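Tutorial handout. Part one gives the primary structure; part two gives the three-dimensional structure as tokens.
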Amino acid sequence: MNPPLDELPRILSPDRVLTAREDLVPYAFDATAALRRVPRAVVLPASTAEVAAVVRWAAAHRVPLVPRGSGTGLSGGSVAADGDAVVVCLLRMNRILELDARNLTLLAEPGVITQAIDDAAAAAGLFYPPDPGSMKVSTIGGNVANNAGGLRGLKYGVTQDYVMGVEVVTAAGDVAWLGGPCVKDVAGYSLRDLFTGSEGTLGILTRILLKLVPRPAARRTLMALFDRMEDAAATVSAVIAAPIVPCTLEFLDRRTMQCVEAYAHVGLPSDCEALLLMETDGHPAVVAEEADRMAEIARDHGARSVTLARDAHHAAELATARRSAFASLARLRPTTILEDVTVPRSRLAEMIRAVEAIAAKHRVEIGTFGHMGDGNLHPTFLTDERDTEEMKRVAAALDELFAKTLELGGTITGEHGVGLAKKPWLPAQAKTEGLRLMRAVKDALDPLHILNPGKMFDPGDARP
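Part two.
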């Protein structure tokens, strides 16, 4: 089937409908490795009305639509699964519509860059906590669609915890507002939460109402170095049991530390097993007390050294070092596969050792870093997609990685989403009945299967 693309310039202006192959290639991939599929066309709507008109056109002709922001996703969620698909790029819908300091809310269009959300909040003395590693380039629409996490997730939660309302264009081309500015609202099903994390498979987000919080008055950052991964994991458990809930509790393994230091030159060692980046924020007196206590706990659990950031600039350098982990590792090989698994915190050291064993068994190179405070690891495969034999070993290693994750009571994705990349392993986690329920929701809200089809699961999954 070839979609009747000649109708699209009458819905949008001709300059916002792309059909030439050279214009389509940038939309054929996202940040997911070894995944490229050129769409049939790309449209760039600038309003909710235009998105609704495009969806009505697609429904009339049964054309698959793929919502997209900056294309920073790591699961293939914004890559066309069907060669006839039309990508709906929302980057032109990039306005912050309102910041309501009295009610601690911010209303934005989906194409606003995440960092701009927090910058706008900061100008009003407020704070938008979710901070995915891509926050300087990712869009808030993509964050909501994938329920993105981030370094501050341990204390502040994930994107879903800050979504108060969404405007969504349904698969029929209707426009619905779900949720609102009330702190308490239990009227009916929580449809707002259903669309958050739905990866564009149930509707297209066109406006998002976000919760803001008061900006922390103080912050302290510490770096602890360990010669044993088990000691770093034990420190994390002891900090949580103290009880202290840090703003961030991140870690890098030896391989990642070496790469980050070669890239960022911030003084990281090359000869220790694990690095913990610990940050506390809040009232100055509480922050000082928590920082001292975390340093004491780390030393009690075998830390080789504990360093307090000298000032805000030094703290920012350490945070930047952690945020550059992916880019640092990506310099080593032509293809970098950034994975995303989460296990209960008590199984962290076991999972990290399993990653090391899997790498050795399948003769693949893996660097691991992540959010140790909430059990979310990012085993990063360093490979070359042109090497067929090596990629077979990577595939076998991935199978074993996800099997071990589920064995330890974990999840195949903590923040990246399922998309195309994780779809093969979702049945093992969701089981038959879980897939049936998800399938029922998809069938009810998108009966023609035009919204991001092929993502998460295929049409026949979990059916008798």
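Part three, for discussion. The longest strand covers residues 218-226. The mean pLDDT is 94.
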